[in-house]
Design the sequence.
C-alpha cells in the first residue's frame, strides 16, 4: 500500500476540515483535495493546493489583450482561441501543488521540466523507506529493435521470472546493506548522505511539485503521450484527469489542440495543398527526408507516429 495507516488518518483529517473562502474554487478538484491516488506499486499523486480556475484564464486574457479578443463571445471560445494561437501567460495565472511519490529514476526524468518549484524528501536527513518499484509482468518489455528509447515485446516465461527475481533480490540486498551501513551494533555508522549512494534507482522518493497551468500542459503534452516511458506516463495520465476536474474548458482545448492535434512543417502544409489539388505526392517529390515523410503519412492515416 502507498500509504500507512497514520498517513491515511492525516489525509482523512485534512479532508474533513473545511474553510470558507472568497477565492474562486473548482468544485471537481475540491473533491479531490488531499486524496492519494495510487500509481504503480507504491506511488501516489495527491493535490495539496491550487489557485485559479477557467475564469482566471479568461480574466487575465481580457486584461492582457483587451479589444483584441472582444469578438470571442464566451469563455470557452476565448480559451480555445488562446490555446489555438499558443498564448501562454493567461494559463500561467493558474497554479497547482502536488504531492507525488515516485521511483527515483522517474523523478530524474520528471525534474527535466525545470519550470516547476520542487522540494524533495531528503535522504541526507531522513532514512528512505524500504519500497522499490518492480514492474508488473505486462510492463516488463525487451529493448525495441527500432527505437533506442523504446520498448519491444513483453518478456515471457523463464526470462521474465529471472529478470523479476534479479530486480527484487538486488533491491533488497542494496537496502539491507544501506541499513547496515547506517547503524551497526557497537559502530558509529556511515552518514546518511553517503549511505544513500548505494541505493538502487527504483527506490521511491517523494516531493512537492508546484507549477502553473501553461507549464503543466507542456509536461502533459510530452509525458502523457503514447511515446513517453510507461512509468512516467501513468503519472501524467492521472494528473491530466485531475486537471480536467480543475479547469475543464482549458483541458478540453488542450486535448483538442495539443494531445489530439498534429504539428505540420511548411513542407507538410504544402504537400497537403498539392494533394487537395489532385497531385500524387511521394516522398521523393515532397522535399522531406524518409523519416519526416513516414511521420507525415502516419498523421494523415491516423496512425501512431
Sequence:
Amino acid at each position: 500500500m502507498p500509504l500507512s495507516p497514520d498517513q491515511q488518518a492525516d489525509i482523512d483529517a485534512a479532508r474533513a476540515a473545511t474553510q470558507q473562502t472568497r477565492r474562486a474554487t473548482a468544485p471537481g478538484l475540491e473533491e479531490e483535495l488531499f486524496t492519494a491516488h495510487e500509481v504503480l506499486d507504491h506511488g501516489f499523486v495527491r493535490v495539496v493546493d491550487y489557485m485559479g480556475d477557467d475564469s482566471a484564464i479568461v480574466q487575465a486574457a481580457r486584461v492582457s489583450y483587451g479589444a483584441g479578443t472582444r469578438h470571442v463571445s464566451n469563455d470557452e471560445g476565448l480559451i480555445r482561441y488562446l490555446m489555438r494561437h499558443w498564448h501562454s501567460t493567461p494559463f500561467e495565472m493558474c497554479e497547482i501543488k502536488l504531492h507525488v511519490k515516485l521511483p527515483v529514476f522517474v523523478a530524474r526524468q520528471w525534474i527535466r521540466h525545470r519550470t516547476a518549484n520542487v522540494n524533495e524528501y531528503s535522504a541526507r536527513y531522513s532514512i528512505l523507506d524500504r519500497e522499490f518499484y518492480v514492474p508488473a509482468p505486462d510492463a516488463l518489455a525487451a529493448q525495441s529493435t527500432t527505437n533506442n528509447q523504446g520498448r519491444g515485446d513483453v518478456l515471457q516465461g523463464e526470462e521474465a521470472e529471472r529478470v523479476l527475481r534479479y530486480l527484487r533480490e538486488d533491491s533488497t540486498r542494496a537496502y539491507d546493506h544501506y541499513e547496515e551501513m547506517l547503524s551497526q551494533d557497537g559502530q558509529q555508522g556511515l552518514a546518511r548522505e553517503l549511505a544513500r549512494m548505494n541505493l538502487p534507482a527504483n527506490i521511491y522518493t517523494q516531493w512537492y511539485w508546484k507549477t502553473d497551468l501553461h507549464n503543466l500542459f507542456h509536461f502533459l503534452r510530452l509525458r502523457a503521450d503514447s511515446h513517453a516511458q510507461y512509468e512516467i506516463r501513468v503519472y501524467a495520465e492521472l494528473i491530466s484527469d485531475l486537471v480536467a476536474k480543475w479547469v475543464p474548458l482549458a483541458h478540453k482545448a488542450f486535448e483538442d489542440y495539443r494531445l489530439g492535434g498534429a504539428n505540420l512543417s511548411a513542407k507538410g502544409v504544402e504537400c497537403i495543398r498539392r494533394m487537395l489539388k489532385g497531385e500524387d505526392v511521394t516522398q521523393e517529390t515532397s522535399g522531406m527526408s524518409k523519416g519526416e515523410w513516414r511521420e507525415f503519412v502516419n498523421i494523415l492515416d491516423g496512425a501512431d507516429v
